[in-house]
Design brief:
Oligomer: single chain
CATH class: Alpha Beta
Order of helices and strands: HEHEHEHEHEEEHEHEHHHHHEHEH
Structural class: alpha/beta
CATH topology: TIM Barrel
Strand content: 15-25%
Helix content: 40-55%
Length: 363
């Protein structure tokens, strides 16, 4: 049975007409990941810029103690017409999977069917809240299963090893039952799980072709084990990006960002080997101590380029040409800005100066 939005929900769209398959950007158009640290005014401006300039999707980070992800996505729904919307990404610890399903079904109604679910094993803020990150792969599997069961629109009886929901479900009929589920990871184990269950993966911070190919191989292994058709799971690259003619300034922004990420993820660095990044003992000690400056000082320009797109538009084009293959369905950027520049300038430069050259389509 089809479900239609109420007139109240329709007023959430920027246009009075509903978006259709034909007026959305093509699937190959790039996506955008925005950090939930900026003010609401900036979010609105960037959402409208992305929607108008041809980006296909928006992911908004679900980070503890920053702006609330789902409220930000509701605001994005109000200020966009075409963009697909999703959390980038939610985890099964800070929110019960049933709560994620409720939020996403509500957002799908508000946005008139433009939602996609982003999940990961998470980590931000869990220790501070006293939440244990137990059995992350199992937790992610059960989250996907439970969320999908709730979107079926009938009472759910689910008993997993970590989560349960008995005799209840959504108190309203979801607009769609087949909302796609994406998993953000570069873990081989989670990639194999994604191959079995997910609709897509977001390969985060992998900017070396061998690392991407290895990740895709793990993903396809999962598909084979589950008896799924090869290529059933879409592959999206999710890359931090800083574009500027002053490459040294752009590199410094990305170097500090990479260093901060190394500090927060230490010692879970197994993915670095595939990127050709070998931290020194001094770098390891600095990361353990949370010394971002010291970690940054130990990172070369090539180390930085192994995890993101950085430099002039022409340089970024060259980087992307070395990364893309028929296996990659989409590139999603997380824009960064050098001092004196803006996030909007990176967003515009990528869609105006980089992407047309990469795709071979003049704008």
């Amino acid at each position: 049975m089809s479900v239609r939005c109420s007139t109240t929900a329709i007023r959430w769209a920027r246009s009075t007409s509903s978006p259709t398959v034909h007026d959305r950007p093509p699937a190959a158009a790039p996506g955008l990941l925005l950090w939930s640290t900026g003010p609401a005014k900036e979010l609105i401006e960037l959402v409208e810029l992305a929607d108008d300039s041809g980006y296909s999707e928006l992911w908004y980070t679900d980070i503890r103690f920053q702006h609330e992800c789902y409220m930000g996505l509701a605001l994005a729904a109000r200020h966009s017409r075409r963009l697909l919307l999703g959390p980038g990404v939610s985890d099964p610890y800070s929110r019960h999977p049933a709560v994620v399903a409720m939020a996403m079904a509500t957002l799908d109604e508000l946005s008139q069917g433009r939602v996609q679910i982003g999940l990961g094993t998470g980590g931000s803020g869990l220790a501070e809240m006293g939440v244990r990150k137990d059995r992350p792969v199992r937790a992610l599997r059960e989250a996907i299963e439970l969320i999908r069961a709730m979107f079926e629109g009938s009472p759910v009886d689910y008993t997993g090893e970590l989560y349960r929901l008995q005799g209840t479900g959504l108190g309203f009929t979801p607009l769609r039952r087949d909302v796609p589920v994406f998993v953000a990871t570069h873990s081989a184990q989670v990639l194999r799980l994604s191959g079995k269950l997910a609709d897509g993966v977001l390969l985060a911070n992998l900017a070396r072709r061998p690392a991407i190919d290895t990740a895709i191989e793990s993903l396809r292994d999962g598909e084979r084990v589950a008896g799924r058709k090869p290529g059933s799971v879409a592959v999206h690259l999710r890359l931090e990006t800083c574009i500027g003619d002053d490459e040294d300034r752009a590199l410094e922004v990305m170097r500090r960002r990479f260093a901060a990420r190394l500090c927060t993820t230490y010692p879970r660095w197994s993915y670095l080997e595939g990127l050709g990044v070998t931290p020194t003992e001094d770098t390891c000690r600095a990361a353990e101590a949370g010394d971002v400056d010291a970690v940054a000082s130990g990172l070369s320009a090539e180390d930085v380029r192994a995890t993101g797109l950085v430099g002039s538009a022409a340089t970024v084009v060259e980087q992307l040409h070395s990364l893309l293959s028929p296996e990659v369905a989409k590139v999603t950027i997380r824009p960064l800005a050098a001092e004196g520049d803006t996030l909007a300038s990176t967003v515009s430069s990528f869609i105006d100066d980089v992407w047309p050259v990469v795709r071979g389509v003049p704008r």
